Structure formats: C-alpha cells, structure tokens
Amino acid sequence: MALWKLHGNGRTVAPGAVVAPDERMNWGATVAIGIQHVIAMFGATFLVPVLTGFPVSTTLFFSGVGTLLFLVVTRNKLPSYLGSSFAFIAPITAATATAGTGSALAGIVAVGLLLAAVGVIVQFAGLGWVDRLMPPVVAGAIVALIGFNLAPVAWTSFREAPLTGTITLAAVILFSVLFRGFLGRISIFLGVIVGYIAALIQNEIDFTPVADAAWIGFPEFQLADVTSPQTWSVIAMFLPVVLVLVAENVGHVRGVATMTDASVNRSTGRALIADGAATTLAGLFGGSGTTTYGENIGVMAATRVYSTAVYWVAGAAAIVLSLSPKIGAVFNTIPPGVLGGVTTALYGLIGIIGIKIWVDNRVDFSRPVNQYTGAVALVLAIAGFTMQWGDFQLGAIVLGSVAALVIYHLGNAIARLRKTGADDGGPIPAVGPLGGDPL
To answer: What is its main location (predicted)?
Structure first.
C-alpha cells in the first residue's frame, strides 16, 4: 500500500493545485477534513436504514468498514466514501414486506456478488460492453424508474403528518436554492433538521427508546437468509440495482480522474469489485448496500483535497459512531411526517437523475424505439405492475428494467431490418450553446 507524501507545507493548497490521492495535508488538517466527509455522508447514509427499517448503527458500521475495504481493494489510489445506496430502498421495502428482512439481505448479497463480477470483467475487458448493453435511453429509464417506483411510499409517510411533511419539503427546497457550496449540497440533511424541530414542537416524537438505549454497544447484526424458498422469488427485483451502481461508480471514477489525473480511470474495475465486496459484506450481516457518494465528491471539489488519507479517517470515524446504540436510537425517532417530506423530494430526485442521463446524452425521443423504451418502463414502475407464478413474483422494477432492455434492443433490430427509421439514431445534434445561465 502506497504511503502519502506531504503536500507542500501540509497546511495550504496553492491556487490551481490539488492534493493528489497519494499526498496528504498535515495530520491535523487530514483529520478535520476526514470528519467533514463524515458529516457530508451522514445525512444520506442514515436515511436509507431509517426508511427501510434496518438498524442505523449496523448500516453506519458497514459504511465505515466498506470504505476501508474500498481503499484496500483499489490499492489506496482512489478516494471515495461508500455510503448506503438509495437504489436499494425500493427492492428492500418490497422484499421485506413479502419475504422478511433475511431475504432482503440475501438480495443485497446477490447485487454485491454480481457487481463484483462486473468489476472483474471491466478490469480485463473494459467498459465498452456495458455501454452497448445499457445505452443512455435504457440507463436513464432504469435509474428513473427506481426513483419513481417509490412515490407511493413517500405518500404513505407524508399523509400521516401533512403539516410536518410540508415544512420538511419546503425546507429542503429552500436550503437547496438559498445556500451555495457545501451547505447547498446537504440541503436534505438540513431539511430533516428543520422538520424534526417542527415535529418536536407538535409533540410527534417519542424519546423513550433513546433513554433506554446504551451509550456504547455493538451494532445489531443479522444473517442473510439464503435458504428460504421466498428468498429466490425476491432476488430478481434487486438485480436492476447493479446497473445503477455501475453507473454511479463509473461516474465517480471519471469525476476524480477529471479533477486529478486521467490515470485514475484505470481503477474503474477495482472500484466496482470493491463496492461489490463491501455490499456483499454488508448484506451478509445486516447492513444496507453501498455506493460511492456524490456528497463526498462535492467536499473534495470544495477543498481540492483528494488524499485517500482523509477517507481512512472518515471510515474509522463512522465505525466509532456506529458503536453507540443511543445515536442509532436518536435517528430512529424521526417521525413519519419528516420522512414523508424528505422522501417526496429524494425519490423524485432519483428519478430526475435518470432523466438527466437522457438530457446529457441528447436522446432523440422522436424515434419510436426510444419513446417506448422510456414510456413503458416508467409506467410499469410508477403503477407498480407485478407478475406472479405461484410463490415467484416479479416486481415493477424488474419488469420495467426488462421492458427497457427488450424494447430497445429488439425494437432496434426490427426497425433496422425493416429500415423504418424507428430505431435509435444516436444523439440529437447540438444546435447552438447547451445549458448555461440565461442572458
């Protein structure tokens, strides 16, 4: 494992310079920035177990362990924090309701193993095959449908306390437009705080579990259930999550490479293997699946410190925090109204990320193949379509993902054979400047 070189005087970063992954600031600054990364990831990471019913401390523990594992597997060359992935919320919620938590954990394990396998292939064969299997119109549809499929879950929580939910949602939106930089990127976390205060004023919070919880103790571990017949009927609904994790990891690596050194792209395969291993480990013992975190990319961009040393600090700090059951109990007191408000924004944002993939890649929606790829997949997910044969059931996420892949590839094959012009003709040519602030 590479050692870190001291960057300059260890206290400052020159204008235009960055602290590379194999460099570090002095240890005081390194620890401070590491703690800042913990704060950045905390708002999103604790929400996943709160929303899925998993123990907060356990998820936080495997988030820290996963981060350290990621650094080892990528040979200390790729800075990243592994937080709990929102892409798992929909399948975990559905699997827990129909087959229990143990089966949901088995689904997480399956995703981790498949992601690691994809990483091995990418390490040796490159990313070209992923782009061909999952072009922008398909990738965008799958990411979007995972978010929009959760809309009824947000409404179920919101309607229990509409006033608190409205205050929370308004605060999230307000903070996102009111603040710039780091505070703007943690608008969801700040919105939860405002909503929590509003719920507290309305006596919607019960602190009894907090008083009963110990200050120090091990997280609550639970083994994945890989033997139950029901497990195999729910694993299928988890598999589309792999596509989301591939996109997130590849995007993370490319982002770091753009801001530091193009050679970082060589770590893409290792990043996928590492995230797959961390997700598998978490699923085996009761934690949620992990992914690279955009919040931490924001911190790196703001500080210009890409040192992996700060992530060793962040991972260790997360593990220490997870050893306090009282902290987990505090997060479990977040009432339904607050969760309803924040998830109304959050689940919608997951969907918008998918639509952004379409926009960024200028998908041509005048072509019928592209129209039906997106349209059918989204309706299947939003309406919650299911298909069942005995005890085996396919949920909306699986059906939507399969529909997107089949419609796109089969539709293109037929359209090109018949030369009807209905196929995907590639991105729309840019006319004039794209994006930017209005004049």
So the answer is: membrane
